[in-house]
Amino acid sequence: MVEAPRTAGPGGAKEQVRRLLALLPYLLAHPGARVADVARTFHITEKQLVSDLGVLWFCGLPGMMPGDYIEVDMDAVEGEGVIHVSNAEFLARPLRLTADEALGLLVALRVLRESGGQAERALLDPVIDRLEQAAGQVDAGLDKVAVRVDAAEDPKVRQILQDALARGRRVHLRYWVPYRDETTERDVDPMRLLQAEGWTYLEGWCHRAEDVRLFRLDRVSDVQVLDEPAAPPPQARPRDLSEGLFRSSPDYPVATLELEPSAAWVAEYYPCEQVTELRDGSLRVRLRVADPRWLRRLALRLGGGARVVEPPELAEAVRQDAVDALAAYETTDAAGGADTAERRPGMR
Predict the structure, then answer these.
(1) CATH code of domain 155-229
(2) Domain boundaries, the chain
(3) Which strand ranges, in their side-by-side order, compose the sheet holding 254-259?
(4) CATH fold for the domain made of 254-326
(5) pLDDT (tens digit per residue) in 292-306
(6) What confidence tens digit (pLDDT) does each residue in 62-74 have?
(7) CA neighbor of 202 nearest in space, from 233, 234, 179, 230
(8) What 3 state SS string does 96-131 have?
(9) With a threshold of 0.85, does the pTM exceed it?
């Protein structure tokens, strides 16, 4: 006999209730669906799905008489790997989207449409149209939502990369690396184009780095499709971006920063190993740094909002960067003042 599950699974009890309310209409519409297929559809493990089915088995109409419970054939689940549900017609209709859910889904689809090519738009247009019609009575403001993808990205770059992906060809990139302020030349075997944090990226095997890398399209100044086929090695795997774009490595050196409230966003945006709130409201964070030049540029960007504490040689480098930047500013300002005085001799 199946016992009532003790854990709610991903997202806790609230998320499990939402999942069960969506799961039941799906199972009624797909009798005999395989456990593996349903788990994949709902992005959960097979173990969690079986646990969810055990919960459904203990649910039903008020009164809780024998005929009031939802029937789940757990023998078929455990023996054949298929799901049969009955006595649950009162929940056969799928959940309706709330206004917020419909709005969020529409915005996401429109972002994909605006950043995609003709093939993607042909696929997405009917989906967006149907969703807009279904949501039309939910929120009159949905038709006022407009999406604009950052114009810094050259659409020709995207088209060339899409062509290279479709043909399975290697590409040559001229790519600007911001934390080194350097334009590099790279041969890349494209793996996919993706959207993350409002930007479009090419993910591929970089022959220069000999590793999988992400390339932001607005930083690509030139791209050429090569005659060589794209052949990422077996160890090349798409990165899991569920926890964000930035990752640290245990091989990277550790740096310690103190952040004023104005720079506290750094602790949320970058992966930190430790975050400590100090008495004055500032934060002390420890993070691993792949390239010290990146941290030096970040510290200059934050100005007085951040101070590098460790390692001492990096703290000294940041201090010297600030001195050099100030000297350069004063030199430029003095030159500008002299030029103004030269053009306007009457001023004192």
Answers:
(1) 2.30.30
(2) 12-91, 99-144, 155-229, 254-326
(3) 274-277, 283-288, 254-259, 306-310
(4) Alpha-Beta Plaits (3.30.70)
(5) 887 888 888 888 888
(6) 655 666 678 888 8
(7) 230
(8) CCCHHHHHHHHHHHHHHHHHCCHHHHHHHHHHHHHH
(9) no
